[in-house]
Amino acid sequence: MCRLLGVVSSQPAPIAELVAEDLEPFIQLACEHKDGWGVAFRDELGAVGVVKGIDRADDSDMLRGLLKSCVTDMAVLHLRMASPNLAVEMANTHPFGDARAAFAHNGEIRPVAFLESLISPELLATADGTTDSERFYLAVREQMDHGATPEEAIARTTTAIREGAEMIISLNSMMLTPTGLFTYSEHDPESEVIGRRGKGYFGLSYHRSETKTLVASEGWPQPQPQWQPLPEQRVAEFTTGSLAPQIH
């Protein structure tokens, strides 16, 4: 399973400054979530950029340099813990996507063949890797390519997965587009992962301040009332113009 962190700010700044005191505790989670890292961000032209690596985040000079130099107002960070039998390679490293959207997932969905049934052959042919997570993204992308808004695409795709997949450990995900950050929280409360980790392991919470909002999975202290949980089976939308979550 993986770890997710997103940030949206009313003013651009280096990602390291936006995440501030929560950055180092997040990166240190790579002691366990050690199978690569990825960063998605909105660039100065309004497109989505993605940079990733397969080294440990806490040992990566490339990551630390990027976080200090990349000036943006929206970003998503992902630490990967590879699912069994999935290779640790760039093609399987989150976030997935292009200049239109970048998508990161924390969980597992089976069978992969069901996910592929939600994707057109032409779009499926663009897959780089072998993960269920990339196919989750392509199923969302399929909806967006046919006119759905990001929140509609995520809602339709997660409903289809819930109704048709044989196994869902978690659908927790973040998608960054040129217009906003979209998050989704849902997991199986009976999964063995919950038994090992505790009921909060797949939750997403957010912390809003005057100029920015952080959204993250757990792993370091996130005291309430500063951090508030996001509702399950709902899409939360965060924009630079309205830092509070809009729940769909």
Automatic annotation (TrEMBL):
The keyword DNA repair does not apply. PANTHER family: GLUTAMINE AMIDOTRANSFERASE, GLUTAMINE AMIDOTRANSFERASE YAFJ-RELATED. InterPro entries: EgtC-like, GATase_2_dom, Ntn_hydrolases_N. Keywords: Glutamine amidotransferase. This is Class II glutamine amidotransferase. Pfam families: GATase_4 (PF13230). It comes from Kineosporia corallincola. Residues 2-248 form the Glutamine amidotransferase type-2 domain.
